[in-house]
Amino acid sequence: MMNYVPFILANLVFFIAWLYFMRLMASLGWSEFVKQHGTKMVKAGRSYPCHSLVFDPDHPRGRSTASLTPTSEGVLFSCGIFFFRPYHPPFLVPWDLVMILESIDGGKSLLVKSDAGTFIAGVDGDFFQSPHVLCRDLKILES
């Protein structure tokens, strides 16, 4: 049994450090939107991967594990990978706070402006072909 103690302690330290890291990551923007737009809604319909999620332009872009689900009420943001879910509950942004940001090269992103803050979500073009998105008259901004 004594041979397993260092292994168990190392895993416990890693787990606690991971939870701390997840809380730190959530504090960079996700938690503010959860406070403002938190929901118990579960995914209903097709989800689309979010390639980048930038809450603060001063922070470098990174890969995102979030997924977006367009619904009749708005866009549901949820964490797609189990290991990244601690401190990242889903939130629902109403359609009136969502705009499309179109770049010079033709790419599109979602721009969300709320009392909780502003962020840009990079998504695939398939997201914009979703029936819930097509039926909306979303404001288009050029970057």
Q: If you consult CATH, what is the topology?
A: PH-domain like
Shape: elongated
Report the uncertain regions. none
State the helix count.
3
User: For the residues shown, what is the average pLDDT?
Assistant: 83
Count the E strands: 8
Major sheet: 8 strands, mixed
CATH-defined architecture: Roll
Give the strand order of the largest sheet, numbering strands 1, 2, ... along the chain: 4-3-2-1-7-6-5-8
Helicity level: 10-25%
**End-to-end C-alpha gap:** 61 Å
**What's the alpha carbon Rg, rounded to whole Å?**
18 Å
Question: Notable features of this structure?
Answer:
single chain, elongated, PH-domain like, 8-stranded mixed sheet, alpha+beta, 24% helix, 143 residues, 8 strands
Short characterization:
The protein has 143 residues and is α+β, with helices and mostly antiparallel strands. Helix content is 24%, strand content 31%.
What does this molecule look like?
This protein is α+β, with helices and mostly antiparallel strands. Helix content is about 25%, strand content about 30%. It contains 3 helices and 8 strands; from the N terminus they run H-H-E-E-E-E-E-E-E-H-E. It has helices at about 5-25, 30-35, 130-135, and strands spanning about 50-55, 65-70, 75-80, 90-95, 100, 110-115, 115-125, 140. Strand 5 and strand 6 form a beta hairpin. The longest helix has 22 residues, at about 5-25. The termini are far apart. The relative contact order is 0.18. The model has no long low-confidence stretch (mean pLDDT about 85).
